[in-house]
């Protein structure tokens, strides 16, 4: 209780742990809320939760409530799952995929991941998971980072082409990206141009400053 009170005055570090995948991880108590961070970015909760909540709002909470299952690629400590369960009131199945066992352990220890009854966690590479799963999803949330860097495979044609194969006909993809440089802005522009024949893409730049949300759906299921 004392730490919680003091956290409204200054941030309190609860854990520091090195991960071979994500680098230095830290759990911080700030204004009574636990946050998971790496040296250069918010990994779970904090601004990241607001960014993904923004994307879910653009898809539409009511639309999401009617869905049966959602895939989260880049689960981390599960802030988007908390939003889905607590705010959106989503009651279907959530499958969370993450390659970093240290992040998942922290999520279980500090962020109650194991207490979310409709969440199933898969400790594996996102590329391998989407190639091997036989499940079709109504929504896919792509939020894959290594610190503040996005793996290049996310923008290669194979990844989102494979995602389309596991997406239901009326499904939608929420893709969280970061744009801090002209090169990253051009990367996103190239991505949109390449996939414009496969998806309808809604683009929301400068969300919480440097993030850009892309929402991909079939043309007949535009989020506009």
UniProtKB/TrEMBL annotation:
Gene3D superfamilies: Vaccinia Virus protein VP39. Signal peptide: none annotated. One of its GO terms (molecular function) is methyltransferase activity. Keywords: Methyltransferase, Polyamine biosynthesis, Transferase. GO terms for biological process: methylation. InterPro entries: SAM-dependent_MTases_sf. This is Methyltransferase domain-containing protein. It comes from Capnocytophaga gingivalis.
């Amino acid at each position: 209780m004392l730490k919680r009170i003091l956290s409204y005055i200054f941030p309190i570090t609860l854990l520091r742990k090195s991960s071979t995948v994500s680098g230095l991880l830290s759990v911080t108590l700030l204004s009574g809320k636990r946050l998971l961070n790496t040296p250069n970015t918010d990994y779970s909760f904090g601004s990241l939760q607001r960014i993904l909540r923004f994307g879910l709002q653009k898809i539409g909470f009511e639309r999401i409530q009617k869905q049966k299952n959602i895939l989260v690629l880049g689960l981390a400590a599960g802030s988007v799952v908390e939003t889905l369960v607590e705010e959106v009131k989503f009651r279907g199945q959530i499958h969370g995929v993450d390659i970093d066992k240290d992040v998942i352990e922290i999520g279980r220890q500090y962020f109650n991941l194991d207490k979310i009854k409709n969440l199933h966690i898969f400790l594996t590479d996102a590329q391998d998971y989407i190639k091997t799963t036989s499940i079709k999803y109504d929504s896919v949330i792509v939020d894959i980072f290594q610190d503040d860097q996005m793996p290049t495979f996310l923008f290669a044609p194979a990844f989102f082409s494979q995602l389309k194969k596991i997406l239901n006909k009326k499904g939608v993809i929420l893709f969280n990206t970061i744009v801090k440089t002209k090169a990253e802005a051009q990367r996103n522009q190239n991505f949109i141009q390449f996939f414009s024949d496969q998806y309808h893409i809604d683009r929301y730049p400068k969300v919480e400053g440097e993030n850009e949300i892309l929402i991909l759906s079939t043309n007949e299921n535009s989020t506009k």
